[in-house]
Amino acid sequence: MFKKRFIGVITVKDRLAVQSIAFKKYLPIGDPVILAENLDRWGVDEILVISIDRTSKNLGPDLNLLENLSSKGLSTPLTFGGGINCLEHAIAVIKLGAERICVDSLLKRSPDVVKKISNHIGAQAIIASLPVCMKDGELNWYNHVQKTLGPITKAVTELFKGGYLSEALIIDYHNDGSSGDFNLDILSNLSLPNIPVVPFGGITEMEKVLKILGMQNIIGFGVGNSLSYTEHAVQKFRERLDQNCLRVAQYSSMNDYNYDSFPS
After folding, report:
1. CATH class of 5-243
2. pTM to 2 decimals?
3. 171 phi, psi to nearest 5 deg
4. What is the pLDDT of residues 90-113, one digit of tens each?
5. Cβ-count burial of 34 within 10 angstroms (0-12 exposed, 13-18 middle, 19+ buried)?
6. 2-11 per-position pLDDT tens digit
7. Helix (H) or strand (E) holding 10
8. DSSP sequence for 216-249
9. Domain coordinates in residue numbering, the chain
């Protein structure tokens, strides 16, 4: 049976991993490289690192951060996003070890560039990040740079229909950073038929995860900072979910840890 993915998400701002709360407030957590090493040991199926301030500051992708991540020899597939504005950026990110890229603002600003990137590196290597919310019964796409709401554009829908994007990371930005409050109405109102979807934002409760994984086109789910606050959080997720759906939980012995990799 097809196994759905458990994705550990690291949100980065000012080169620090942060807890993002509704895309408005940011609480520092620590070094994103150390968090990635933790997620790698804990056994998530994928690590998604998103630098949320690179585009607004016109900085391009944080290649230094990606180099540091790549130097750790992570065994978990890595997806990297933030500041990717052109084909050259995408190529640089892939060459430095990311298996896939994640784009958001580029979808709004330059869908033709997304096509160009897809034609070069392949649609399987591109994830669309769509922060959304429900307002007045309608699904709205949030522009986190301009702080505005609007519908998912026809251009983005055409990117999916044309096979230029592999899947959609659907972020409930209102409940981003909250506990167990992902709005299921978002998934019911998402007009992206046959598109693989990964929900993220406020997903912490097992009952909510089970409902999400049972919905059509859901291929996994993302969990962020909450994984860092509870011992064996990843393993406990796996143990309480249907083992036919996720990989079996594995625990590492403390003797398996490389203590030399930790700061003194």
Report:
1. alpha beta
2. 0.89
3. -100, 120
4. 999 999 999 999 999 999 999 999
5. middle
6. 678 999 999 9
7. strand 5-13
8. TTB-EEEE-GGGGTSTTHHHHHHHHS-TTTSPPP
9. 5-243
- Residue 222 to residue 14: CA distance in whole angstroms: 22
Q: What single string gives the DSSP state of each residue in 174-216?
A: GGTTSSS---HHHHHT---TT--EEEESS---HHHHHHHHTST
Structure tokens at 66: 């990606």
CA distance 82 to 50: 5
Tokens read off for 260: 């030399």
The pair of structure tokens assigned to 178 is 């909250």
- Location of structure tokens 């298996």: 99
Comparing C-alpha atoms, which of 72, 115, 63, 71 is closest to residue 94? 63
**Unique residue bearing structure tokens 């251009």:** 155
Question: Exposed, middle or buried, 248 (CB in 10 Å: 0-12/13-18/19+)?
Answer: exposed
